[in-house]
Specification:
Mean pLDDT: 88
Strand content: under 5%
Low-confidence stretches: none
Number of strands: 2
Structural class: mainly alpha
């Protein structure tokens, strides 16, 4: 277990190199990538089982000197906030690769290599405890995702890929400036120049308020684009619609969580005073995202674009919970990050599945297909209900905790945000009715139901949705102590400000 995090980061890279060298045909690359991703997921099991839930500090820590001249270390660790994201990343990558077996028909070797490299970078982002290392992993994600959208996407794939790349890169520039500023400021105060994230977090409240404000805003732009928060969300629908199924699953399931993870890991502990000062702004933007995302989703004709805009709405709940600055809100936000990855990832898998059969994503082109594909209709209904936060499903627990925390912190914003639950029910149930219970399209009379492979990769997600809804303590128990420490730190700063 001493090097488990390094193994999780570099094993997919080794598998990708193996496929590049020995992958003589697409079938070999496909199965090799899937087996590697399953092994990667299995490796997270001892990570989860050996994690000490009563310890809110970093665990499985690895630290080695790297660039001595700049005091850059190869520094890894996970706590209760990041461990669920590592689990989510490895699970969804394995499922996304299995879901791509029939979808990807060209340049298969390159596609599966890109997926594995992307997985390595994503795991690295959630494990890095050195800013320099974190930034390398953060930027490394851009390249494989750009290729996945730009090479294997839809008709407007190049436009969507470039738009995604430019938006994310613009945010990364602001983040890099914030990291450099912290490096020099911490060094000038302590005499020890370092990129150590934990040391900067410990000193966060001691940074001058003006400096905190500048650093917070720089981080905010980087992370808000990634979430994406209103009004930085315009790249998301294009990227989702044009991306292949696996790209949409990873984009919605994991990449969006990196923005909210950044708020939790950097903005709150390192710039706590600025974070408290900007709570009204974040709360307003979160509420706008919840309502606006839902209303725009309601008028979409493309089922994939509808689910993409629903992500804007659901991620608004996450940011609202995080900036409630209390145990319920932050835990609800983290749980909702996990739930959204599972639920929306599953919805994109299901949309990709039916697109392979019909070659259309327009809601008007379906109609009444429940009679033709009853298993598919049942599975889609499960995740539709999970998306609208039906009790006994994971989405309900996450949104409930977020709203509890939000009502404690800012009741007015919470009351407005709660109407987003009704809006989400309207557009998701309207979409389900149009697709499954209208007059069937004559061109779809020979539609085939889900096969064994498709049931196999969607079944684990069904289990997790109900497991999270019935017994959320399985997942929230990991985050209790880490969130408690963060809330105590924020409360101490808040009291000092008064």
């Amino acid at each position: 277990m001493d090097n488990i995090l390094s193994i999780l980061i570099f094993f997919p890279v080794i598998a990708a190199v193996f496929i590049l060298i020995f992958g003589k045909n697409g079938k070999f690359a496909m199965w090799s990538a899937f087996i590697a991703s399953v092994i990667e997921f299995i490796l997270t099991v001892p990570l989860m089982t050996n994690f000490d839930k009563m310890n809110g500090n970093m665990q499985f820590v690895e630290r080695y000197y790297w660039i001595r001249a700049l005091n850059v270390d190869y520094y890894l660790g996970v706590d209760g906030i990041s461990i669920l994201m590592v689990f989510l990343t490895t699970l969804l990558t394995a499922i996304a690769i299995l879901g791509s077996f029939t979808y990807i028909q060209k340049r298969q070797k390159e596609f599966y290599v890109s997926m594995l490299v992307l997985e390595a970078a994503m795991v690295g982002v959630f494990c890095a405890l050195d800013f320099f290392l974190f930034y390398i992993f953060w930027e490394a994600m851009l390249i494989p995702m750009y290729l996945i959208i730009g090479v294997w996407g839809g008709q407007r794939r190049v436009y969507a890929a470039v738009k995604f790349f430019l938006y994310t890169l613009a945010g990364s520039v602001f983040m890099m400036l914030a990291i450099i500023a912290l490096y020099f400021k911490y060094g000038s105060v302590t005499g020890n120049y370092t990129f150590d994230i934990l040391k900067m977090s410990e000193m966060g409240a001691q940074f001058p308020v003006g400096f905190q404000t500048i650093v917070f805003l720089a981080f905010f732009f980087g992370f808000a684009i990634k979430v994406p928060m209103f009004p930085f969300h315009t790249w998301l629908p294009d990227a989702h619609v044009e991306a292949p199924t696996a790209g949409s699953v990873i984009l919605a399931g994991v990449l969006l969580k990196m923005g909210t993870y950044g708020f939790l890991r950097f903005c709150l502990p390192i710039t706590p005073i600025a974070s408290i000062n900007f709570v009204p702004l974040i709360a307003i933007l979160s509420v706008i995202a919840i309502i606006y995302g839902g209303l725009v989703a309601m008028v979409q004709e493309d089922v994939k674009k509808l689910v993409a805009y629903s992500s804007v709405s659901h991620m608004g709940f996450v940011t609202l919970g995080i900036y409630a600055f209390n145990q319920s809100g932050i835990e609800g936000g983290i749980l909702q990050m996990f739930n959204h990855g599972i639920i929306t990832g599953a919805l994109f898998l299901l949309i990709g599945l039916i697109y392979e059969r019909t070659h259309t994503r327009l809601i008007a082109d379906y109609g009444g297909i429940a009679a033709k594909v009853p298993v598919y209709a049942t599975v889609f209904l499960i995740f539709t209900m999970a998306s609208v936060a039906l009790p006994s499903m994971g989405g309900f627990i996450g949104e409930f905790l977020v709203l509890v925390g939000a009502f404690k912190a800012f009741p007015t914003y919470a009351a407005i945000a709660s109407t987003g639950v009704i809006v989400s029910a309207v557009y998701m149930l309207w979409m389900y009715q149009k697709v499954f219970f209208q007059t069937v399209n004559p061109n779809l009379h020979h539609l085939e139901d889900m096969n064994v492979r498709e049931v196999f990769y969607i079944f684990p997600l069904i289990i997790i949705v109900f497991w999270t809804g019935m017994y959320p303590e399985t997942f929230t128990s990991y985050m209790h102590e880490s969130v408690k420490q963060l809330v105590e730190q924020l409360n101490a700063v808040s009291v000092a400000m008064k």
